[in-house]
Structures
1.
Amino acid sequence: MSYHFFETKKESALEHLSREEILTDFRHMLLIRQFESRAESAYQAGRVGGFFHSYAGQEAIQTAAVRACGLKDWYSTTYRCHALALLLGATTDELMAELYGRETGNAKGRGGSMHFYTESLLGGFGIVGGQVPIGTGAAFTCKYLGQKDRISLCFMGDGAVAQGAFHESLNMAALWDLPCLYVIENNKWGMGTAAHRAISVSAIAETKAVGYGMQGYTIDGMDYLHCYEAFRFFKEEIIRTGKPILVEAITERLKGHSISDPALYRDKNILATCTDPIVAMKKLILEKGFSTEEEMEKMDKELREKVVASMKYAEESPWPNIATLEEGVFAP
Ligand SMILES: Cc1ncc(C[n+]2csc(CCOP(=O)(O)OP(=O)(O)O)c2C)c(N)n1
């Protein structure tokens, strides 16, 4: 399928981003990939339980969004939440310990892989579309408190747009002029169902936005510079107009839906030929002379060691005291 992407200029992104910022974001992307692959191996070794959804392949989107919008906005996302938590300041120690179900974990071992949070990340959500009303509420807060330079970024998968909560939230956000940036990360699959078999329209954001009286855009989620420029523009637009925006970021998940999914329904040739955002970023850095192959390999090795050290930290951390099991959790 061919997409009509929002137009951005690479040169313009390079004018706004310093060498240090690009290298920092490359480092973030490598850290996310290392975290996902080491955590996956811990899962397979029986050290991690529950669900586990890897963000591998989608790194450029949230890395660029956080770079363009900053740490002060509100963020919400799906159960595929490891990357956003890392980008918003959670440590590899606390996240790995959370996966291991330990007291030192990000949610004291209560949430596991799908429920990471930070001061500005309102959580990963296990219910498809569950975070959309939450992200909308965060945008309402910004407006209610008169925080004119603050927006809410709400990430979701393509599967969420068929949910009632999506419709009600977007209608309300448009009606009340709420500063919300809704980002559909279209990795082309909702579990094992191809998006085109579940969603009645293509160009999801552009088509659906019209029905809410919003602006809708499609972006290439595999291209960091393009994503950065696009997110910079979206935030500026939301602040300028006070109105929400709906975006579809076309991407590819490099793994199955979750760790237990071997993705046998998927054509392996597509994966073999699709862009890896990290490889693309490496190419850009080499082209610009921002770093060398050796330096980048060294960076990757350091990050691997950092994540491996976090596995040791998690392993050695205490289990939650059984007497506190009901503390900090909500169950009706
Ligand atoms: C309301 C609800 N229905 C069904 C599920 C089971 N479920 C979990 S993930 C998923 C697919 C969602 O796909 P998508 O929104 O495209 O996100 P992706 O996993 O591809 O990032 C489904 C159906 C759920 N968690 N919540």
2.
Amino acid sequence: MKDSVGRVHSIQSMGTLDGPGVRFVVFMQGCHLRCKCCHNPDTWDVCGGTEYLPAELVAKACRYREYFGAEGGITVSGGEPLLQAGFVHDLFRLCHRENIHTCLDTSGSILNDTVRHLLAETDRVLLDIKYTEDGLYHDHVGCSLSAPLEFLAYLDEQKIPTTLRQVIIPGINDGKENVLKLKEIAEKHSCVAQIELLPFRKICQTKYDAMGLPFPFGHIPEPKRDVIEALQNVIPDYV
Ligand code: SF4
């Protein structure tokens, strides 16, 4: 069988923000969505990045194994890793042969047989529920809320431990009502044990400038820390 080849944007050897414990994080190149809050517009181009074989990445990840401890492992993020689901499947399968825990960070916007195959090798999913209203999804993401919800229903069916993630953007989704809706979604799916509310950040402005693109949410301020804390207090069982 021919080895699959993946296009990788970048690698973070010891990440602590994308999944449990210390993780080797692979950011895949390419995304079909255009979130107006996107921090990584430089990952969008599906033709960019550097080519890797799954075994090359696993060999690199193994160098950090001693730091993974009981909880850590590999996380594949993006861009949107589901665009290269066949490659990520092969990567995760090799990780499992090495007893490395696998975590997938995704928008959950694609669900087909290749993705289901990948999920069979996935130990945990970090699923972005970017908004809890379909209108906001259409306006600010470029797909429907029903896509990640369908994805979440499948994760629940397969009993894959899942963390829901949402970037909190002032004036758009920083209300208590939104977080209560997110909690409602979590409560309907027993695979969800945790919700992460992430503050909207604008450090990516320089990436947009370098690419000659407008940052659609460049005019929106970053949220204050106490706003995020107050929202977290609405969902104590999931934080
Ligand atoms: S899914 Fe992620 S990488 Fe793609 S546009 Fe949205 S935030 Fe950016």
